Protein backbone atom coordinates (compact mmCIF):
# COMPACT_ATOMS: atom_id res chain seq x y z
CA UNK A 1 0.00 0.00 0.00
CA UNK A 2 1.29 3.46 -0.89
CA UNK A 3 1.90 5.88 1.93
CA UNK A 4 0.96 9.47 1.29
CA UNK A 5 2.74 12.47 2.68
CA UNK A 6 1.18 14.67 5.33
CA UNK A 7 0.37 17.50 2.90
CA UNK A 8 -1.70 15.10 0.79
CA UNK A 9 -3.52 13.80 3.87
CA UNK A 10 -4.21 17.31 5.12
CA UNK A 11 -5.53 18.25 1.68
CA UNK A 12 -7.93 15.30 1.77
CA UNK A 13 -9.03 16.21 5.31
CA UNK A 14 -9.59 19.81 4.22
CA UNK A 15 -11.64 18.69 1.22
CA UNK A 16 -13.60 16.35 3.45
CA UNK A 17 -14.40 19.30 5.73
CA UNK A 18 -15.49 21.36 2.73
CA UNK A 19 -17.77 18.60 1.47
CA UNK A 20 -19.27 18.03 4.91
CA UNK A 21 -19.89 21.77 5.17
CA UNK A 22 -21.68 21.69 1.82
CA UNK A 23 -23.77 18.74 2.93
CA UNK A 24 -24.73 20.32 6.24
CA UNK A 25 -25.59 23.65 4.60
CA UNK A 26 -27.78 22.11 1.89
CA UNK A 27 -31.50 22.11 2.62
CA UNK A 28 -33.11 18.83 3.60
CA UNK A 29 -36.16 17.49 1.79
CA UNK A 30 -37.81 16.80 5.15
CA UNK A 31 -37.44 20.16 6.91
CA UNK A 32 -40.67 19.62 8.91
CA UNK A 33 -39.45 16.43 10.56
CA UNK A 34 -37.39 16.55 13.75
CA UNK A 35 -33.63 16.22 13.37
CA UNK A 36 -32.14 12.77 13.87
CA UNK A 37 -28.70 12.12 15.26
CA UNK A 38 -26.45 10.42 12.70
CA UNK A 39 -22.73 9.99 12.26
CA UNK A 40 -22.11 10.09 8.54
CA UNK A 41 -18.41 10.50 7.83
CA UNK A 42 -15.24 9.20 9.39
CA UNK A 43 -11.60 9.38 8.40
CA UNK A 44 -8.47 7.84 9.84
CA UNK A 45 -6.19 10.40 11.45
CA UNK A 46 -2.70 10.40 9.90
CA UNK A 47 -1.16 11.35 13.26
CA UNK A 48 -2.49 8.63 15.57
CA UNK A 49 -4.32 6.22 13.25
CA UNK A 50 -7.59 6.67 15.15
CA UNK A 51 -10.87 7.27 13.38
CA UNK A 52 -12.28 10.76 13.69
CA UNK A 53 -15.95 11.64 13.20
CA UNK A 54 -16.81 14.49 10.86
CA UNK A 55 -20.18 16.21 10.92
CA UNK A 56 -22.63 17.76 13.32
CA UNK A 57 -25.13 14.93 13.62
CA UNK A 58 -27.64 16.09 10.99
CA UNK A 59 -29.21 13.48 8.76
CA UNK A 60 -28.12 13.59 5.13
CA UNK A 61 -29.82 12.22 2.03
CA UNK A 62 -28.64 9.53 -0.37
CA UNK A 63 -28.12 12.23 -3.02
CA UNK A 64 -25.77 14.07 -0.68
CA UNK A 65 -23.87 10.86 0.02
CA UNK A 66 -23.62 10.21 -3.73
CA UNK A 67 -22.20 13.72 -4.20
CA UNK A 68 -19.73 13.08 -1.39
CA UNK A 69 -18.61 9.80 -3.02
CA UNK A 70 -18.32 11.47 -6.44
CA UNK A 71 -16.04 14.16 -5.05
CA UNK A 72 -13.76 11.57 -3.45
CA UNK A 73 -13.72 9.54 -6.66
CA UNK A 74 -12.69 12.67 -8.54
CA UNK A 75 -9.90 13.33 -6.04
CA UNK A 76 -8.62 9.77 -6.41
CA UNK A 77 -8.74 9.94 -10.21
CA UNK A 78 -6.94 13.29 -10.24
CA UNK A 79 -4.27 11.91 -7.90
CA UNK A 80 -3.78 8.88 -10.15
CA UNK A 81 -3.26 11.17 -13.15
CA UNK A 82 -0.74 13.44 -11.46
CA UNK A 83 1.18 10.44 -10.08
CA UNK A 84 1.78 9.25 -13.66
CA UNK A 85 3.86 11.69 -15.78
CA UNK A 86 2.61 10.25 -19.08
CA UNK A 87 -1.04 10.43 -18.03
CA UNK A 88 -0.50 13.98 -16.80
CA UNK A 89 1.04 14.98 -20.15
CA UNK A 90 -1.83 13.41 -22.09
CA UNK A 91 -4.39 15.18 -19.87
CA UNK A 92 -2.64 18.50 -20.54
CA UNK A 93 -2.65 17.83 -24.29
CA UNK A 94 -6.33 16.96 -24.32
CA UNK A 95 -7.23 20.10 -22.34
CA UNK A 96 -5.31 22.53 -24.57
CA UNK A 97 -8.58 23.91 -26.00
CA UNK A 98 -9.47 25.19 -22.53
CA UNK A 99 -6.24 27.16 -22.21
CA UNK A 100 -5.35 28.41 -25.69
CA UNK A 101 -7.69 30.83 -27.43
CA UNK A 102 -7.58 29.62 -31.06
CA UNK A 103 -7.01 26.30 -32.83
CA UNK A 104 -4.17 27.90 -34.79
CA UNK A 105 -2.34 28.80 -31.55
CA UNK A 106 -2.90 25.28 -30.27
CA UNK A 107 -1.47 23.84 -33.48
CA UNK A 108 1.62 26.04 -33.22
CA UNK A 109 2.19 25.07 -29.57
CA UNK A 110 1.68 21.35 -30.19
CA UNK A 111 3.87 21.30 -33.30
CA UNK A 112 6.77 22.79 -31.35
CA UNK A 113 6.11 20.45 -28.42
CA UNK A 114 6.05 17.43 -30.74
CA UNK A 115 9.62 18.20 -31.80
CA UNK A 116 10.91 18.04 -28.22
CA UNK A 117 8.71 15.23 -26.84
CA UNK A 118 10.66 12.04 -26.14
CA UNK A 119 7.90 9.81 -24.76
CA UNK A 120 6.20 7.82 -27.57
CA UNK A 121 2.81 7.85 -25.83
CA UNK A 122 2.96 11.61 -25.44
CA UNK A 123 3.97 12.00 -29.10
CA UNK A 124 0.96 9.89 -30.17
CA UNK A 125 -1.36 11.97 -27.98
CA UNK A 126 0.02 15.15 -29.56
CA UNK A 127 -0.54 13.70 -33.03
CA UNK A 128 -4.12 12.73 -32.16
CA UNK A 129 -4.83 16.25 -30.95
CA UNK A 130 -3.12 17.77 -34.00
CA UNK A 131 -5.26 15.53 -36.24
CA UNK A 132 -8.37 16.91 -34.54
CA UNK A 133 -7.16 20.52 -34.77
CA UNK A 134 -6.04 20.26 -38.41
CA UNK A 135 -9.46 18.88 -39.32
CA UNK A 136 -11.16 21.68 -37.37
CA UNK A 137 -9.32 24.43 -39.27
CA UNK A 138 -9.61 22.74 -42.67
CA UNK A 139 -5.95 21.70 -43.11
CA UNK A 140 -6.79 18.36 -44.72
CA UNK A 141 -3.25 17.71 -45.97
CA UNK A 142 -1.77 18.06 -42.49
CA UNK A 143 -4.63 16.03 -41.01
CA UNK A 144 -3.97 13.21 -43.48
CA UNK A 145 -0.24 13.29 -42.66
CA UNK A 146 -0.95 13.02 -38.91
CA UNK A 147 -3.35 10.16 -39.58
CA UNK A 148 -0.73 8.38 -41.69
CA UNK A 149 1.93 8.79 -38.97
CA UNK A 150 -0.45 7.48 -36.32
CA UNK A 151 -1.19 4.42 -38.42
CA UNK A 152 2.39 3.48 -39.29
CA UNK A 153 4.03 4.17 -35.93
List the helices and strands and how they pair.
Blueprint: H1 6-25, E1 41-44, E2 51-54, H2 62-83, H3 85-94, H4 96-99, H5 103-116, H6 120-136, H7 140-152
Antiparallel strand pairs: 1-2
Helix pairs in contact: 1-2, 2-3, 3-6, 5-6, 6-7
List its salient traits.
mainly alpha, two-stranded antiparallel ribbon
Compact overview of the structure:
With 153 residues, the chain is mainly alpha-helical. The chain contains seven helices and two strands; from the N terminus they run αββαααααα. A two-stranded antiparallel ribbon has the order 1-2.
Would you write up a description of this structure?
It is a single chain. This protein has 153 residues and is mainly alpha-helical. The chain folds into two domains: 6-26 and 36-83, no CATH class; 85-152. Helices cover 65% and strands 5% of the residues. The chain contains seven helices and two strands. The chain has helices at 6-25, 62-83, 85-94, 96-99, 103-116, 120-136, 140-152, and strands at residues 41-44, 51-54. A two-stranded antiparallel sheet has the order 1-2. The radius of gyration is 23 Å and the shape is elongated. The two termini are 36 Å apart. The relative contact order is 0.08. The mean pLDDT is 78.
Amino acid sequence: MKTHNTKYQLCIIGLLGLVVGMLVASPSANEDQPEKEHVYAQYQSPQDGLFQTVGNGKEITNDQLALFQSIFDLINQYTAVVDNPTACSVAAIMSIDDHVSTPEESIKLLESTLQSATNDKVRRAIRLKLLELYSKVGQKGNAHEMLRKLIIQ
